[in-house]
Amino acid sequence: MPERLSGVLDVSVDNVIFGFDENILKVLVIERKPFPDEKKGMSAIPGDLVYPKESLDGAAARVLKDLTSLEGLFLKQFHTFGDPNRVKDLKDQEWLTNFRINPERRVITIAYYSLIKMDEYQLLPSYFAEKADWVDVLEVPDLAFDHNEIVSKALEALRHGLEVDQIGFELLPEKFTLTQLQNLYEIILDKKFDKRNFRKNIKKMEHVIPLNEKQEGVLHKPAQLFKFEKDV
Amino acid sequence: MPERLSGVLDVSVDNVIFGFDENILKVLVIERKPFPDEKKGMSAIPGDLVYPKESLDGAAARVLKDLTSLEGLFLKQFHTFGDPNRVKDLKDQEWLTNFRINPERRVITIAYYSLIKMDEYQLLPSYFAEKADWVDVLEVPDLAFDHNEIVSKALEALRHGLEVDQIGFELLPEKFTLTQLQNLYEIILDKKFDKRNFRKNIKKMEHVIPLNEKQEGVLHKPAQLFKFEKDV
DNA sequence: TTTACTTAGTGTAAAAATAACACTTATTAA
DNA sequence: TTAATAAGTGTTATTTTTACACTAAGTAAA
User: Fold this and answer.
1) Are residues B35 and B94 in contact, defined by beta-carbon separation less than 8 angstroms?
2) Which of A142, B4, B96, B202 is most buried by its number of CB atoms within 10 A?
3) Whole-complex ipTM
4) Could you tell me the domains of chain B?
5) pLDDT digits 0-9 by tens, B198-216
């Protein structure tokens, strides 16, 4: 009978939150409290251990709320990371010693991503996080553990998800213009589209519905507004 | 400071192994040893707890080998299942009581799938598995825990993977005919293709290489053989 | 009231990809 | 020689994708 072990691994969730704004795509990183002899805490993405009785999706939502105050996001699981040597850095080990009951214990982590409109949410750092901040997706700093790898896999998953699952509409104002929508696609996919062809494609989507309203307060020809209808 | 718990979850891996044969797609299920008062052990897909020092991919491979003797498969992680109530069935609980050190402990499981040629592998059940058998993918029996859900998600992932990642060529003999290849696609995707159009598409794939050889021993016009070249 | 500025909005033609379709060919066995 | 079987092959119509440039509607300033 093979060796049988129990309870020697910890399970965490980590969230890669992408923030979208008219012109840019960012990632949410938190900064840990520094140690007494440190200038600046290490940066990381918001994640923490899963409680014994909660679902993974639930844990992801709770942890995110605890660390950043963000709630109500659509969090999509995309990969589980479990390299036994995920914690290579000395600083990371030190941090674990201070904040975990079993710092030496191996942790596997289930990673989620989400995409939100930056300006609709306020980031309020918590007990654990010195601050929570947006960083450009192309200039992600050195992060704790294997978080840089997690972020880059999340970006792949996000791009894939935008095309396949039509995530993304949540990011726009309730009433949006086609130019705003095109912007969103271009920024996330890092790719330009032809205006006319883009609009032709959108017109095929049944859940993008034209409204009898126009943009107001702009100093040029006002655009028609559209809304997104979830269930068709 | 929020409650912080450690070591209260177990981590397992589960493998959904699809077996392909000229005409059919099957799934590998194992049958557990029955209890003394049972006629027949419950069926399940091969999975077990992860050891403290092994990678997840490594655990998936080891567990699979232990339970079925299959080795050297390409195992692809596709989802992690962690519902706190994964174990609903009374029989499942009973089984855990007999075979796990901490039977009441919640288990999250990282699921993998693979696809192999059935006739190239021999299934040898192990200590834990009464037998290991192939069942038609359309007639999967009631399985332990949430294994039915895992299998159906795996099938989705497989179909997606066949088109996107060109998994699938491992399934064919080293030298194969285009009809065999078409068969494989048709069975896995459960969909018919036009012979001529299919062949046109294959000719675009640089890694499918025609050989100067023909099929032998068939009682009809022998087909040209092709091979699959991994790195282009 | 005219002009300048800004972004919205629109159609067409060429090119590429996909879909539909049926007969001839090479081999073996009787 | 014939019958049986699966292999192999091209063309045309349809659909999808791409490339491309001017006019329209509103605001603000002269």
Assistant:
1) yes
2) B96
3) 0.86
4) 9-165 (3.90.79.10), 173-228 (1.10.10.10)
5) 999 999 988 899 999 999 9
